[in-house]
C-alpha cells in the first residue's frame, strides 16, 4: 500500500498556476488505439518545453482532474512532408522510447491533419525512425529490426498455469508469458513484481500474458511500465508476443492478437533473416532477426481545448 500511495500522490500532483495559465486554450486531440488512449498535441500550437514537463504530463493524464490517458504524444511537423518528430510520454511523466499504439494514432493524426500523405508517413521516435501508412482507413507502422530475443527468460520463474516465458526488445523491453487462463492472471500484482525485479533494473520491463483462442488468434494482457498498471492494449507488447510465438512454433505470421478491449491488432514481418547477416551473434540468443509491422486502430475520439488543469 505504501508504494501505491506514493504513486497516487505523484500522479495527482498539481501543476503551478503559471503552467495552468499557459496551457489554457491549447487545442488537443484525444485518441485511442484499441483502448490504449492518448492525448495528442501538434507542436505548432503548443510549447514543447511546457508539454514535456513531467508534472504537466501527469496533470493531463489524470483521469479525475485532467483529460485522462495512458500517455501524451507531441508531434512536431517538418516542412514539405519531411519526417515528423514524435515524442511520447507515459502517464507518470517519463519519456517513453516507443509506444506502438501511440505511433498508430500519430499516423492517423498526421494524415488527418495534413502533415503527411497517407501512403508515406515518416515518424522519428526516440527508438528510431518509423515508416508508416494508412491502409483502408487503418494505420500500419514498420518498426526497426528486433535483434534481442530470448526464447527462454531465466530472470522470470513460471508460476502455476504458466507454461513458457521469453523476452523481446521491441523498441522497449517486454517479457512474454504463455498461460492457460488469461482471466485468472493477477496482472497488477505479478506484473508489478516482474517489472520492478532486480533482474530488469534499472529500466524495468513491460510484462505480457498470452493465451490461445479457439479461432487461431491469441489474446493478451499487458502490465505497462510507465503507466504502472494494466492497459487495454499494447502495440509493442503485441509485437513481442508475435515474435516469441513464431520462435516457439506456436503461430505463423501474420499473427492476430486480441487486446483486452476486444479489438484486434495484426503483426506481420517484412523479413526474417539470419542474425549473422544483421548483428553480432553474441548479441542475441535466437538465430533470427525480425522486421515487424503492426496494424491496428488509431482512432480520433474527440478534439477540444484545455481548460483549467490542476
Outline of the structure:
The protein has helices at residues 2-11, 17-23, 48-51, 54-61, 100-112, 187-195, 235-247, and strands at 27-33, 36-42, 71-76, 84-90, 95-96, 121-125, 128-135, 138-142, 149-150, 162-170, 172-179, 206-212, 218-224, 229-231, 255-258, 264-274, 288-295, 299-305.
Would you give an account of this structure?
It is a single chain. The protein is of the alpha+beta class. The chain has 2 domains: 2-138 and 299-305, Diaminopimelate Epimerase, Chain A, domain 1, CATH 3.10.310.10; 149-295, Diaminopimelate Epimerase, Chain A, domain 1 (Roll), CATH 3.10.310.10. The chain has helices at residues 2-11, 17-23, 48-51, 54-61, 100-112, 187-195, 235-247, and strands at residues 27-33, 36-42, 71-76, 84-90, 95-96, 121-125, 128-135, 138-142, 149-150, 162-170, 172-179, 206-212, 218-224, 229-231, 255-258, 264-274, 288-295, 299-305. Strand 13 and strand 14 (229-231) form a beta hairpin. The longest helix is centred in the middle third of the chain and has 13 residues, at 100-112.
